[in-house]
What does this fold into?
Amino acid sequence: MDIQIFKDYAEVKRQISALEEQAKLLQGAVMQELEKSGKTKEETEFGRFSIASRKNYKYSPKVEELEEKVELAKIKEREKGIAKVTETHYLMYKDTTKV
It folds into this structure.
C-alpha cells in the first residue's frame, strides 16, 4: 500500500481546514467593509463580493406536529422495507495527530 497518498491527503485536509478558518475571519472583515461603505455588492479585480440574506422560518406547532408524523411514517416505511435504499460510498478522515 502506498502510504504517501494517505500522508498527502491528510496534509491537504489540514491545509483546507486552516484556509477555511482564515476565510471565516476575512469574511467578517469584508462584510464590515461593505457595510461601512453602505454597499451590498462590490465588483473588484478579484471577483464580485455580495452580502446575501437567507430567510429562516419558525413554523407553528401544527406544522411541527405534521413534520413529526412524516418522520414517523418514514421510519415505518424503512422498517417495513417499503422505502428504497440507495447507498453512497465516501471517504471519512479524522486528523488524529491533533491534541
In short: The longest strand covers residues 41-44. Residues 18 and 24 are 10 Å apart (CA to CA). The first helix runs from residue 3 to 36.
